[in-house]
Amino acid sequence: METEQREPVRSTAMMQSFWNVQRHLVRAAHQTAQENGLSLPQFHSLMTMAPRNPITQKELAAHTHLPKSTLSQSIEGLVQSGWVIRETNPDNRREVVLTLSKQGETFITDIKQQEAGMQQQLEQVLDQIDPTVFEQMLETHAQIADGLKNILSPGNGGCADD
């Protein structure tokens, strides 16, 4: 009975807070994807490809942390839609190189303009936070991430280090 009345430990409160913020950010990304006829993995793949264009499929997998089958389906849909060009690397026939097509580049520009609207909305939310508190929050997040990185064993948990 005594444990039911105890306040949640700080680690639980922190995880719940991060999950809550992430849930809303993912919902915003999902909404942008749906508005553009994309799945969330396709949207994630495109937005990851854009600044790294061209990129190998292996590099894209490392940056997105998507399962191989999900990434393959995502890329196939993007190729079929004409937004991505998939080619075999002539210097390494086992390597697949992905490049945004002209249509894909235009699409990314359009999505970024839509995202700019979302980013502006997020900025309005963040403007309500005292700048000093905001900077402290970012420093605290970095400290938490570094601490977790140091205690987690490599290769466990499904994600590699970025």
Protein model, in words:
This protein is mainly alpha-helical. 66% of the residues lie in helices and 10% in strands. The protein is built from seven helices and three strands. Strands 1-3-2 form a three-stranded antiparallel β-sheet. Strand 2 (84-89) and strand 3 (92-100) form a beta hairpin. The longest helix has 26 residues, at 10-35. The model has no long low-confidence stretch (mean pLDDT 86).
Q: How big a fraction of the residues is strand?
A: 5-15%
Classification by helices and strands:
mainly alpha
What are the segments in which pLDDT stays under 50 over at least 5 consecutive residues?
none
Task: Sum up the overall morphology in one term.
Answer: globular
Radius of gyration: 20 Å
Mean pLDDT: 86
Strand order of the largest sheet: 1-3-2
